[in-house]
Amino acid sequence: VLLYDSAISGNCYKVRLLLSQLRIEFERREVEVVNRGDRVELLGDKNPAARIPILRLDDGTHLAESNAILWYLGEGTPFVPSSRLDRARALQWMFFEQYSHEPYVAVARYWLVVQGRDPGEISDLAHLHERGYAALDGMERHLTNESFLVGDSYTVADISLYAYTHLAGTGGFELERYPAIVAWLARVAQQPGHVPIDS
Amino acid sequence: VLLYDSAISGNCYKVRLLLSQLRIEFERREVEVVNRGDRVELLGDKNPAARIPILRLDDGTHLAESNAILWYLGEGTPFVPSSRLDRARALQWMFFEQYSHEPYVAVARYWLVVQGRDPGEISDLAHLHERGYAALDGMERHLTNESFLVGDSYTVADISLYAYTHLAGTGGFELERYPAIVAWLARVAQQPGHVPIDS
User: Fold this and answer.
1) How far apart are CA B8 and CA B114, in angstroms?
2) Nearest CA in chain A to B93
């Protein structure tokens, strides 16, 4: 398979991490994510949202949206739960990630780290932090009583939320406020086949 | 089952529509969505994102995120595709809906219709329309060649995107620009067991 990828994108890292843990060989094709003016021309025929990651399958078709790619790769393996209710709970966390977490936790990092802005230059940084902390609060409430997000084991839901949560500090979030999240991040990083984002 | 619901929420309507089409009886409990100050207290123990819809299952546990609830209800029925690749394609559209469509198409309607603001009062309405039109452009490109979003039949992906797309006009979007979307909306509304949002 071929991954339309970005080394600095947490959404792309999710896919690289699961491919590594499944020991699936893949080719990476780096796509510029900072200068996005031409992305509909570049990616629009492969993904209606013209975003990466996009996975090109052996039959030449394309699959997009990081969490849908995780689901595709993980189905039939222990990374996607075997019970119907636990599958829905995994998806619940993955939709939470894209709606309530990524637009704040990832976007604060994007402006500060990827674009290199000063905090004072980002007009809505306080809003990003307020909503991002609300997402982290929700994770902390759950992880206070649980080792992983769904059931007793590591799944695609953990991969999905690990990607930007472990980078939240670079977006100005104080992760030390969240002992359950910090312990969960360490458990995720200890899973067999784990690779860091810059590998 | 019990649905924590809002009559005006498209996310809640998705669940009501599929429950109707599956002929599953359910109880509705209306939750105030306009005044959200106390929603962590009200909903935080049922959903880490403290949003509706939330479905209370027969065993007393709760499931949240509209698209995860659709998946749970639809698995094992024709509403969730039977092939692994088509399941991933359905999820691709549902993640597209939550990340690239709902935050713009639904939010423009929210300010104009639910909050009753004048267009001139909404500071980022131009941005909501720009990003919402980009999402509609992506749907139109796909639906120009396809009858439904995934494969040849109506699935949870269509339910997910129908909910706010059919209301886009009330958010100031000119749907008449999109003949393939307009034809798809009519096909969706003709499905057996279809109910309107205000039923």
Assistant:
1) 8
2) A65
Return the HEC string of B112-135. Answer: HHHCCCCHHHCCCHHHHHHHHHHH
Assigned token pair, A161? 């939320």
Helix (H) / strand (E) element for A54: namely: strand A54-56
Whether pLDDT at A13 is above 90: yes
What is the CB-side half-sphere exposure of residue B65 using CA atoms within 13 A? 25
* ipTM score: 0.97
Alpha-carbon distances, residue A99 vs A132, B54, B108 (angstroms): 11, 15, 16
Measured in Å, how far apart are chain B's first and last C-alpha atoms? Answer: 18
| 3-class DSSP state of B144 | coil
- CB pair distance less than 8 Å for A98 and B94: no
Residue B124 pLDDT = 92
Tell me the C-alpha distance between A13 and B17, whole Å: 35
Chain-chain contact of A141 with B48 (C-beta, under 8 angstroms): yes
**Which residues make Cβ contacts (< 8 Å) with residue B24, sequence separation at least 6?**
B1, B73
Which residues, listed in sequence order, are joined to residue A4 by a DSSP beta bridge?
A29, A54
What are A114's two structure tokens?
Answer: 């990827």
Please tell me the distance from the alpha carbon of residue B99 to that of residue A100, in angstroms, as a whole number. 10
Of B51, B91, B137, the CB nearest to A67: B91
Tokens of A82: 């075997």
Q: What is the largest CA-CA distance in chain A?
A: 48
At B172 the three-state DSSP class reads coil
Q: What is the CA A178 to chain-centroid distance, rounded?
A: 19
Minimal Cβ distance to B49: which of A51, A57, A100: A100
Residues of B in contact with A137 (CB under 8 A): 40
Report whether B158 contacts B149 (CB < 8 A). yes
CA angle B151, B157, B161 (to 5 degrees): 125
Is the pLDDT confidence value at B34 over 80?
no
Partnered with residue A148 across adjacent β-strands are none
